[in-house]
């Protein structure tokens, strides 16, 4: 009987405290979310204008007059070149959700790119047993590309040092549109090859979500923590809010 009372007391106290704490946390949730949203909007301007003083070029649209790559992997070797390459749409994202959950220490978000596409002339010259030589124009688009993600973090109890625990990214694509000319000199077969590419890319993006999520998590988590260093959460908020 005594212990039941004790438990009841603890629960009652706990919920009082919970109510007290939840109120300012909810306010914090909102302010963090709006700070991050502001940052996301700033980033759009960076993509559109670049940051010349840091050597960051304009990325939306991203252009390359001429570039060629040497491919050398075992049986495949040759060159792959592009001319008049233009990538559009990196800045055309919509923020579908952006939620900072201070209580559970995580940020969830979803970005949607309506169309991320490039136009280019290409030239391939590959040798492997037989020789493949192709050139022509190309258009390639990822449509309704959604990037969902969740970043979990922890705050040191005493120092409030921020640590990123996990970065999960789940991409998915609504439609892939591939129009690469001259893959075959027969038009029907050319369309077929483009369809194979469309299907391959769709499946690669949509069916490998756990693989991608795991890979990104492994790559991004240590990088984030390196960037954060010994800074506390309030240091970081100060840097972000002071910067703009
Ligand atoms: C390519 O992407 C841009 C930016 O999203 C969009 O405005 C344009 O309509 C797209 N082009 C085509 C042909 O879909
Ligand atoms: C396709 O390839 C042929 C032979 O390489 C070339 O003459 C032709 O210009 C190419 N077609 C296009 C549309 O670029």
Automatic annotation (TrEMBL):
<keyword id="KW-0732">Signal</keyword>
<dbReference type="InterPro" id="IPR010562">
    <property type="entry name" value="Haemolymph_juvenile_hormone-bd"/>
</dbReference>
<protein>
    <recommendedName>
        <fullName>CG33306 protein</fullName>
    </recommendedName>
</protein>
<dbReference type="InterPro" id="IPR038606">
    <property type="entry name" value="To_sf"/>
</dbReference>
<dbReference type="Pfam" id="PF06585">
    <property type="entry name" value="JHBP"/>
</dbReference>
<feature type="signal peptide">
    <location>
        <begin position="1"/>
        <end position="18"/>
    </location>
</feature>
